[in-house]
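Incident log, support desk, overnight shift.

02:14 A customer reports that sequence design results differ from what the structure should imply. Their input is reproduced verbatim below. On-call engineer (initials T.W.) acknowledged and began investigating.
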């Protein structure tokens, strides 16, 4: 493997004079954007921008066509049907949509909702609030020592009163691929609907929502080399029809009188207001970018790089991973002995190395490990071994200068 990524030159950020030395290791927060994505957004915004689905003139019809073609392409990318794909602003909005439009009307004090204890706050807070409001119980499934959802313990939490299940495909702190097919199989045996938070998983290999057999799957474009502001919610077609939109506005109605509203059918009833067409174009360009590389090549590169990351960190005796590094995890969260996580990130920033420090929107997970924070390093296509070598040198330096022990 080369020291520099063969994909690095696809990303304009590194050619800017301010960023020639940038070592970006925070892709789990957001991926940097390849030029083709920015170009697609630029083209649309400069030369094709209009309000989609509303105007009867050529430019607006073009924007409508872009959105609807994109819906089909993005649906194909995750193995869904076109009429099952809702454009959202991101994973957070998708999960809230399901909480408010699907779960809330079906939840009573007798029910429970099961999630895992590794959830991002986006897949915890909506359920926590619904449970508090309804009197239902929120159950947290434990993890195996390897940081995966413990399927046996998970199964033991399900009962006839379980109303909903929501788990992450990959935790943004631990990085391991959860056995979501098994979770969905257990759920199906009891007819419990399942949402998968796919924010971290969608860039980690092909996702097929039909194979997973989930009812809902949410992800964000910006974790897939696309722009912020465009995400996706897959919702099973029959469920879309029984859900009422929570967010209300223009473009989602068949008929409105002053006292009543009849909503349109299909996914667009969850997309009130004006579409973010530029971001949708960017998402499609990101998917094209990934598909042009091809999953086999992308996975071979990233898995090789992640093995190198875990090895380099394992060689540093003062680095303590939160959990044993999961094979294939493209991130590693750890503590540096005797140095606060924020100080580690601050020191690395001095060498233009960008990592995340804090609880990564997963406070209960950190709490369950007896921690308040950690450092997280996460990889993207632009990273090469050189970045990991710089990280290791930066960590050594940090430890030598700051460690209290
Ligand atoms: N879930 C997970 C596992 C995530 O990593 C993130 C982003 N850090 C989210 C949900 C929320 O995604 P967004 O901020 O794009 O809505």
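02:41 Re-run completed on a clean worker. Output:
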């Amino acid at each position: 493997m080369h020291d520099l990524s063969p994909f690095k030159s696809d990303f304009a950020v590194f050619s800017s004079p301010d960023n020639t030395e940038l070592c970006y290791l925070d892709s789990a927060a957001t991926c940097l954007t390849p030029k083709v994505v920015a170009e697609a957004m630029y083209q649309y915004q400069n030369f094709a921008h209009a309000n989609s689905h509303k105007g009867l003139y050529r430019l607006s019809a073009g924007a409508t066509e872009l959105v609807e073609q994109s819906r089909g392409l993005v649906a194909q990318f995750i193995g869904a049907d076109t009429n099952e794909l809702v454009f959202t602003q991101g994973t957070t909005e998708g999960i809230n949509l399901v909480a408010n439009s699907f779960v809330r009307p079906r939840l009573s004090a007798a029910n429970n909702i099961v999630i895992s204890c590794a959830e991002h706050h986006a897949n915890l807070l909506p359920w926590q609030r619904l449970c508090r409001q309804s009197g239902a119980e929120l159950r947290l499934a434990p993890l195996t020592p390897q940081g995966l959802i413990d399927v046996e313990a998970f199964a033991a939490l399900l009962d006839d009163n379980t109303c909903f299940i929501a788990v992450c495909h990959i935790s943004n702190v631990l990085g391991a691929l959860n056995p979501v097919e098994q979770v969905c199989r257990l759920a199906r045996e009891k007819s419990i609907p399942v949402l998968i938070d796919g924010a971290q998983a969608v860039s980690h290999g092909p996702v097929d929502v039909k194979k997973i057999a989930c009812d809902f799957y949410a992800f964000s474009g910006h974790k897939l080399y696309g722009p912020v502001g465009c995400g996706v919610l897959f919702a099973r077609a029959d469920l879309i029809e029984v859900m009422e939109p929570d967010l209300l506005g223009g473009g989602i109605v068949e008929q409105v009188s002053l006292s009543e509203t009849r909503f349109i059918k299909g996914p667009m009833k969850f997309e009130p207001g004006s579409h973010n067409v530029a971001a949708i174009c960017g998402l499609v360009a990101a998917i094209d970018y990934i598909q042009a590389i091809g999953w086999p090549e992308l996975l071979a590169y990233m898995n090789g790089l992640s093995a190198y990351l875990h090895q380099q960190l394992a060689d540093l005796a003062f680095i303590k991973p939160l959990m044993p590094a999961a094979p294939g995890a493209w991130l590693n969260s750890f503590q540096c002995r005797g140095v606060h996580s924020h100080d580690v990130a601050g020191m690395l920033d001095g060498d233009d190395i960008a990592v995340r420090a804090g609880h990564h929107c997963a406070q209960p997970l950190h709490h369950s490990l007896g921690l308040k924070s950690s450092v997280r390093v996460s990889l993207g296509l632009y990273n090469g071994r050189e970045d990991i070598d710089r990280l290791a040198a930066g960590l050594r330096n940090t430890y030598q200068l700051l460690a209290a022990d």
